[in-house]
Each structure stands twice: as C-alpha cells, then as structure tokens.
From TrEMBL:
Molecular function in Gene Ontology: calcium ion binding
Gene3D superfamilies: EF-hand
Protein name in UniProt: Calmodulin
Key word Acetylation present: yes
Keyword terms: Acetylation, Metal-binding, Repeat
The keyword Transcription is annotated on this UniProt entry: no
Start and end residues of each EF-hand domain: 99-134
Domain of life: Eukaryota
GO cellular component entries: myosin II complex
Organism: Toxoplasma gondii
InterPro entries registered for this protein in UniProt: CALM/Myosin/TropC-like, EF-hand-dom_pair, EF_hand_dom
Length: 169
C-alpha cells in the first residue's frame, strides 16, 4: 500500500502547480487516470459534484483513489471453485479468492517441498515475522492462538489459508 500512496502523492504533486497542497476539482479526473485507474466520465463528474467547488487535498485524493482501487480489486476476485474446496479442504466462506488461494498454494509448497500436505508452524511463524507489515513473535503467537494452532507443530494447507485470511481482515 505504501507504494500506491507514494504514486498518489507523486501524481498529486505533479498537478499541484503552486505547491499549496490543493488542486482544482476539475483536475481530479486527470490525476485518477494518471494512476492507471479506469474512470468513466460520468463517474468523475459524480465525484466532482459531491466535492463541489472545494479544492482537492492530498488526503481527499488518497481516499478517492483507494476506494476505487478496492472496488477494482473486488471486481477481479474469482470465487473459490467446488474443486478447490474438495481438494484443499478449504471453507467457501474463508474470504479469499481463487487467485489468492493459488498464490498461497505456491507459497505453501515452498514449505512443503516433499508434498506431504503439511508445513512447519515454525517456518510459517518466521515468514510472518518478516513479511510486509512485520509481525512481532508475540503477534504471530496471538494469530496462531486465534486460529487454535498454538502448540501445533504442523499446519495443513487449509490452516495456512485460514491464517492468511485472518491477516486480510
């Protein structure tokens, strides 16, 4: 997300000619399209109308751009197939898309090179401690306890998915 915020700030600063931290509402569409977002003319007009004549600040721009990004991400999510549910033993209401589960399977297979269907809790804990927004060892223990894996030595793929699903909430 930090990269997206940086990109938003960059687009905003390019448009903020006088450096006062505000841009004209009429420039909003240009900035949003600079981010690569797909906006219809009608959608931009609707947002501009909601904002009125007020100038757009960086915070307002970030809020609008993030909302659109979330909407686009939701539209791309593919539901979990019945085959995935049966093969992996994953609940359909886990909150992950088919693409996310496929990505997690690739990660899981790194920890399970023999294909036994389980990975070490210790390995997963180490990865959680150094990925993205780093979790402290205490946070990892809490996360495992929330999923009832505290004290466990191994995780099945469905368990692995449940942990990452909780991280998204």
């Amino acid at each position: 997300m930090a990269e997206f915020q940086y990109l938003c700030k960059f687009c905003f600063c390019l448009t903020d000619d006088d450096g006062d931290g505000k841009v004209k509402v009429s420039q909003l569409g240009t900035m949003l399209r600079m981010l690569g977002q797909i906006w219809s003319y009608a959608s931009i007009l609707k947002v501009e109308k909601e904002l009125g004549d007020r100038p757009v600040t960086l915070d307002t721009f970030l809020r609008i751009a993030k909302q659109k990004r979330l909407e686009e991400a939701k539209a791309r999510k593919k539901p979990i197939s019945e085959q995935m549910v049966q093969v992996y033993g994953i609940s359909t209401d886990i909150g992950l898309s088919a693409d996310e589960i496929n990505e997690l399977k690739v990660c899981f297979d790194v920890f399970d090179p023999e294909g036994r269907g389980v990975c070490s809790v210790k390995d997963v804990s180490q990865v959680l401690s150094c990925l993205g927004e780093q979790l402290s060892p205490a946070d990892v223990e809490t996360l495992l306890a929330l999923e009832n894996f505290d004290g466990a030595e191994h995780l099945r793929f469905a368990d692995f998915c449940a942990i990452f699903s909780r991280l998204q909430r």
